[in-house]
Amino acid sequence: MEAELVALATAGATALVQQMVGDGWERARTRVAAFFAARSGGDAETVGAELEAARGELLRAEQGGDQEAAGEALTEARVEWRARMRRSLLADPEAAAELRRILAELAGPEAAAPQHVTTVNNTLTGGSHGIVLQVGTVNRMHTVHDTGGTGGGGTPDGPRP
After folding, report:
1. Hey, which of 35, 70, 96, 144 would disulfide with 61, CB 3.0 to 4.6 Å?
2. Rounded to an integer, what is the distance from CA 123 to the centroid of its chain?
3. What single string gives the DSSP state of each residue in the chain?
């Protein structure tokens, strides 16, 4: 049961962070703030202010033009809100049904966040030697092409499949 709640918390945090930088933010903020307030005994305005602060950090990082910093900010926000959702769900497993309803609402066509797609294409040329490692955020598409040499994941006969 805990694994299911952790998966739901992960999905919830991912959807929430997507909404933070998307067009459906106001509705998402209202629904999620009410969800947390009902479980913490706090008020929705306080939770809403915390959500707004997290959103502000994401937008500043995104507007800064540094993709690495923006990716780190997204990851940090997902981790923070995933942990909060997980704790709420573990304390009140009945809340899972409400969180599923919220996710279904947020996934609706009128609330869908614009998809930001970043494609990175790398080309390795020359006689590079050793290991070539590309690291990135999981939700982005990356391709690596090895056009020669024996390093960078290729063999003398070409790149590995």
Report:
1. 70
2. 27
3. -HHHHHHHHHHHHHHHHHHHTSTTHHHHHHHHHHHHHHHHSS-HHHHHHHHHHHHHHHHHHHHTT-HHHHHHHHHHHHHHHHHHHHHHHHH-TTHHHHHHHHHHHHTSGGGPPPP---EEEEEE-SS--S-------TTSEEEEEE-SSS-TTEETTEE--
144 and 124 Cβ atoms separated by less than 8 Å = yes
For the segment 57-77, the average pLDDT, to the nearest whole number, is 90
**Residue 121 pLDDT:** 63
d(CA 105, CA 111): 7
Note the pLDDT of residue 23.
81
Q: Which residues contact 99 (CB under 8 A, 6 or more apart)?
A: 8, 9, 12, 35, 85, 89
What is the pLDDT at residue 156? Answer: 47
pLDDT at residue 10, as a whole number: 92
